[in-house]
Specification:
elongated; alpha+beta; 17 strands
Amino acid sequence: MAEFLLELFSEEIPARMQARAAEDLARLLGETLAPLAPQNVRTFYGVRRVTYVADISAGTPASTISERGPRANAPEQALAGFLKKHNADRADLREEDGYFVLEKTVAAVTAQDLIAREMPALLRRFPWPKSMRWGGAGSFTWVRPLRRVLCLLDGAVVPFTLEEMPRLSVGAETEGHRFHAPGPVTVTGFEDYQTKLRMRHVVLDVAERKRIIAEGIAKLAAEKKLTVVDDPGLLDEVAGLVEWPVPLLGKIDDAFMDLPPEVMQVSMRVNQRYFALRNADGSAAPYFAFAANIAARDGGVEIAEGNGRVLRARFADARH
């Protein structure tokens, strides 16, 4: 078996679309690579990437197709559809007992050739809920500008060209955190890929990002004898907004603590993606929790203060 690694790297993907994109990528590649019997399939997703890794066969052996088709007197359209389904010519048919019978030898195909042949069509039919055109991409659309494709088979690049985007980079490079480690880095396989991303401030696995956020804000809240309002949906969304989650607490201005707790929570959640905190008696705490996407040199003090200023404006709107 050979390791196949694919990463589709773009500008920021909306958090609500990421998990579905990983599912769609697995489904499409499952169909495309079916002749290569994919095993140990894993997918990952985040702010700027959707990744697929699996073990696949090195190729498909030569084979012979023998299948009965339409009746000999069937309409021409039925025969044309049968030939198209099998990518066959009329010369591959013979008549037997009033039916057309297809007999065709299918040549062996290497995994590299199959992937290179099928990837352009897969990218074109990728089902984003919303997509866009940009630059000189012509008819090609993607959720946000597609910047590069990492496509490796046992460490070797599987090159292919997308006609609509002749300058699209297809190779062995990915990119780290936009601010902490900008620029491309070459990888040789999945383990190297995951390691180099972490070195460049990217936590690849969404489950790990969620754990870092949940445990981090819970610990910060506990230090002030507070609890975090449980909100799985918000946690899912925030994990899709950060590559390198840094849990932080911010202070709520005392002037807004007379607002109903439910109003405060909705405003924080919907407008800012902040987590609400509660005192031991269940009342609203004068703090909020959130996850930054950078590890600031001051420990996040300025980031928390800035978020606090934004929240004051939101609460002022809520009061109004």
